[in-house]
Amino acid sequence: MTNTERTRKGFGDILDLENPQLKNLPKPKQKNATFIKFSFLDLDTVDEEDEYYWNLAVRDDQNNTSRIEAMQVSYINYGWLYNDFPPCIGTDNRPRDGRTRILAAKRAGERWIIVAIFSYDDNGSPITSYISNSLACQQRPASTGVCINDFIMAGIACVNAGECLPERSAVEDLVYNELQAESFFSPRGGAITKIVNKILDDVLEEGTSGGITVVRSREDWQTWLAKAGYVKGDYILLSVDNPTYAMRAWCQHLLPHFSKNKSTATIILYTNAKTGTKARRYISEFAVNLQYYYTSSFAMVNRAQSAVEIKVADPAPYTIAGAIPQIHDNHNINSFKLVDISDY
How far apart are CA 234 and CA 221, in angstroms? Predict the structure, then answer.
């Protein structure tokens, strides 16, 4: 059977927009939105580097590789199922739901996937509306659900966008009314209070969290670096998220490098911090701590012998080439250019 206006080949079968089970599915709750129609999304047009497919401020773990791989396995075992509402796409071509399903289908080699097209009204708070509708779509049986941290990151994003004041009453209104947390958590269990308190804690100092960050696995960043032109083996990729990581970098990576090579070691940094404020602090502290271990090594040798004083070599035999751009709205996260840590 060939493709027609209402059918496409896919998932080892025929995808049919006229399937009765599909047409009878209850529509998900969406604010300021009107359902338009079911349609096909051409997966060849989906760019995985498009930030709207990254689950920023929607999933705490963003595009978790294991979730995508698990969905791929589901497609292999069961094909396309009509008992679950398809991914929701706006007339602006931005996904509100089903990012994981879309990416899993694309990676599985599929060309087409059924989607539901909605028209979303501009209510003056586009970021809050986008996040709220994305979370609302998770109220369905086949969803992997949401967790407390998903709501925390959503709230932080709304404050950063200037659509919610960093005050308790405003954040409570956001969590209860806009994000509708009571649809996911019992008000008696303390979860919603925890969400509100954590949002306020993260934005308390400056009124914002300094932006939300793009978080990926080490393997994903190595792929990013390859696209940016960096050859694996020519750099040392290091996380900055723990005070001990600078010490480990010095002992486990740099000292072995210096013992075998005369060349300068090239370091590239990344973080798993969820907010820009923490990411900047971790980057700065890592650089300071690494310099401390470098100079302390000379002090140790000089203390161990008195024949000659060895001065600290300048420049150091390592260089921090930069950090991966991860802070949304502050870095060019769609580029393949490192950020100088002095401008991070």
Answer: 15
Q: How far apart are CA 145 and CA 142, in angstroms?
A: 8
Residue range of the domain that includes 205: 147-209
- Specify whether 13 is located in the same domain as 65: yes
For 102-127, how does the pLDDT look when each residue is reduced to its tens digit (9 = 90+)?
A: 999 999 899 999 999 999 887 767 77
For residues 246 and 310, state if they share a domain.
yes
The count of structural domains within the chain is: 3
| Residues 300, 228 contacting (CB under 8 angstroms) | no
Q: Buried b vs exposed e over 273-289: b needs ≥16 C-beta within 10 Å?
A: bbbbbbbbebbeebbeb
Which residue type is seen at 134? S
- Cα radius of gyration rounded to whole Å, the chain: 24
For 7, the 3-state DSSP assignment is: strand
**In the structure encoding, which two tokens stand for residue 72, read together?**
């791929």
pTM of the model: 0.64
